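Is fe (ii) ion placement plausible here? Inputs below.
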Amino acid sequence: MIRPVIDPHGWNRSEADADSAKFRRLSASEIAEFDSALVVIRASGKPLLQMNPSDFPLKGPAKAVLLSAVREAQSGRGFQLLRGFPVDRWSVEDTKLVVWGIGMQLGVARPQGKASHFLADVRDAGGQYRGVTGRGYNTNAELDFHNDSSDLVGLLCLRTAKSGGTSLLTSSVRAHNEMLATRPDLVEELYRPFIFSRQGEHAPEEPPYYQTSIFGTYNGRFACRYVRNHINSAQMAFADIPRLTARQVEALDMLDATVKRADLCFQMEFEPGDLQLINNYVVLHSRTTYQDHEEPDLKRHLMRLWIASPTGQELPADWKPFFKDTAAGAVRGGYRGQNITPEIMQFEERLAKAHGMHFRVYEDKMALRA
Ligand SMILES: [Fe+2]
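Reply from A.M.:
I modeled the complex. Tokens:
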């Protein structure tokens, strides 16, 4: 029998609204430490993939505030917002170095798509959200609630839109429990496998789609992986996969309706200088559509990093086809894409070693080459 998941991740909107600790403004000494680390990383002159955590040295209060945000994401409410990064006086290139440096301090960055890029600019580049190769980050579309493909996602806001672009967060733990109260039969359905498309961004050694459950537990830890857009794409793109049953569609529709419920979904407006850190396994995110300013320099712009965390939880064993490694504290996840180079693998292995993480994420790739 499926039981409700009882842990601190299971908040609803009024609980999230009342929790003032979710926003934490950086102090002057924390900002000063980020500034000093920026000077060091800039002076290193190294390409991003040649860097090490020591190239962005954080040891004092700035490191403590990042680690406490990770703790909050993994063992508390599932997300944390750090406010006040001085992006108004950092150039875009400097901001990129800071995001990269923060990522190196927190774990191993994960690739984010076909080009195997590690830092994504979330802005409207005229992309197509729906469709068999659609992604959301390069559009101004309202997004379905979903999670990204890594232990943690970090979003740093450089500029907000003229209007819209509200950030929406829902606890997948709470959605699970709410559904369970009235339709345990549909929850059961979501613990069974679904087929997700890789949106045409798979590596040569990867199949174009994969199968995982949407809800799963392992050793008592709950986890959710959900991207309806990719489930729908798989149905459109692959004639050889089973069609969704009416019951599966009913379960997905109920999950979609639950996560957007006004009493469950927490809403927040980004400010330039906000860093939002989310644990993907327990929080689903979305954003409303937005309208940009005309001037290119004023358009909404966020930088996104996906991180495998040394303190990441163990995942359900049947999630291996997507994550490649389900052990706690393993390098895993991301969209490998089509440009993984030896330099990338060496960077990841070096970072994994620095954080004491398992590094088996390319075993399938190496097996194919052998
Ligand atoms: Fe996302």
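Short version: The first strand starts at residue 23 and ends at 25.
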